Amino acid sequence: MNQPESHLDKSRLNNLADEIWKSAIRLRGKFSAHDYQNVILPIVTIRRLECVLIRWREAKAEEIRSKRPKITDEDLEKLVKSLELNPQQSPGFSNSTTWTMRKVYEEDHTLLEKNFRAYLKGFSENIQDILDSFDYRAVIGKMVKNARLAPILNQYSILDIGPQSLSSLEMGYIYEELLRRFSEAHAEAAGDHFTPREVIRLMVELLQIPIPTRHTSIYDPACGTGGMLYVAKEHLLDKAKTDKEREAVDKFITLHGTELMAETYAIARSEALIRNETQTTIHWGNSLIPHVEGSKDPGDQFPESKHQFDYMLSNPPFGVTWGGKDGYQTEAEKLESTRYLAGMPSVGDGSLLFLQTILAKMKPAPKEGKTQQGGSKVAIIFNGSPLSNGDCGSGESEIRRWILENDWLDAIVMLPGDLFYNTGIYTYIWLLRNDRDAIGRKGRIMLIDARQQYEKEPKSFGSKRNRIVERHRAWIEDRYHNGWNRRKADDDVRFFTKDDFAFHKVEVVFWQTDENDEHAIITEPFPVSFTSGNVSKKQEFYDSEITFHIRVTSPKTETLHEFDITVGPEDKFLDAYKAEIKDRFGKEMKNFNSSTLNKLEPEVTYTHRHYTKDDEYIPVDPKRDPDKYIPEFLEREIEKPIIRWEDRQQLGYEILPNKYFYKYVEPPKADALLREFWKLEAKAEDLLKGLAEEVV
């Protein structure tokens, strides 16, 4: 049952989500907010699986009775059950018992727990994996203890949520709306942002996955409930015009995903079974670390040494922490010399680890000018951090450099804000492919400003106040697909090269000037511990004469000594200081050394040129020599005497879409602002007058 997102009855879905949510609210006082989803999500999933089985049994019974009208009800039930338990005949899973949730509820309630556990135990092995991921058997004990098993079974055993009533697309909305509410109830930080189906649809269409004529693989390293994967296939089935094309989609498309959260993994796995996706592989694990068989923390079970994919799309968690005591930094760093060779991002944001994981699994690209199949295409959603976080030479900058120098970045689409359920931040779709040479896009990157392509949601879904509908998708797709044909920039589309995103980070020392625009000389307290080592650093920095004014008290006689020492860049300050101290302290300083110097704790001010050290970020000019345009830039921007400057060995890279699409808006004139102010004041006076009259 394939249903375009634009045709969904969201009022109906909201009502169903509300009905399910009310049952979670009734757990209050019996369960903590954190446990709501542990009770509700599994029972919803079990009921959806049960609806599939009931529907299959009814259809199979009708088929058998049409051929054998005289068969008894008892024999019919036995025959249907034998077919269900036959892997060649079943709908992909089975239950060896005759129980349903309704039958369990309608039996003796003193046997309720026993019968329900027997019912769950009767499911086939592939369902047991799902139940284990939910850890539902432990939850049942809590439900019984808190007298909640019976009412929960009563409510859900009559809920019509089978695939004939709710498509996978619709059920995805239900699951993710529930997950959003659960996370809000538990006050969880917004990090896992479930992707709205209209955004997934846009990503799929931007990838232009064709009706396959050969095996075509689709991968998501953070698949959540499987939405990216299942919508991708649904879109292809919608796109197919003939039975032959639909058969090709079912035959050649394989879906591959990894999910770390056990509950969402279980939902993704159950949806694969409900959809009868026999060519879908969903693993529970962390796709950012190597997999070790038998480990309690499974890793990436699609290693790039064995797995490469045609299309990859993902919405990895924003700002996920992968370091520290709660992270997996040690395990991730085992891939530092292979998958993550380009760099390791900061431990507070693993977004670019997901991107490197994806890029490591690309298929080899075709040679330039060749038309044979090959290469991989990627669509991934990020917030703004991966675009510009990290300074020159940092892990993030080096990863961006690696991507740009390999010419994999094809385009970035700037999306509207308030599209996601748990956050209102702006997001960006990165489109990457490694066949750009072969299709004539070498060295150019497209940026699309689609921030205005939205309409308001009729009813907000948490932070999701905006939505993308068909006309917005069509606008974005036209700018991307036809934009490469036109190769023409406009108000919403810009083209760049990698050099446009590169910058020099230059450390510059310049001489401040005083109020008379003369070279400034200042006297100030010595800012750090007064040691010969720190003095040497100041001599090196100022590379000119420095005068130290020193006030020091004799430890024995408490006599105050005050004197100046002037040194040049090459002078040995300690020798001069030692001579001054010995001359003034006499025998008391007979065994003078650096340790004694430190114990004197003098008061020190020093007079020096007023130098300032700063970092300047200078755009790259690929047509000119940096040794010429860097000093020109510094002279133009700083307008102070430049003492020296030093460029980093490596260029930095950042992408600043807001900067490239900035449009200056002239502020209103002063008289217009005044007129608006007086209008507001008059309105306020009227309101106050009305309030005063009401009081009287």
TrEMBL record:
Top EC class, one word: transferase
Keywords linked to the UniProt accession: Methyltransferase, Restriction system, S-adenosyl-L-methionine, Transferase
EC number: 2.1.1.72
PROSITE patterns: N6_MTASE (PS00092)
GO molecular function: DNA binding; N-methyltransferase activity; site-specific DNA-methyltransferase (adenine-specific) activity
UniProt family annotation: Belongs to the N(4)/N(6)-methyltransferase family.
Protein name according to UniProt: site-specific DNA-methyltransferase (adenine-specific)
Lineage: Bacteria, Pseudomonadati, Planctomycetota, Planctomycetia, Planctomycetales
